[in-house]
Amino acid sequence: MVFKIDNIHCEKCAARIKKAMEGVDGVSNVVVSQPDNTASCDCDASLVETIKAALDDAGYTVVGVQ
Question: What is the pTM of this model?
Answer without folding.
Answer: 0.95
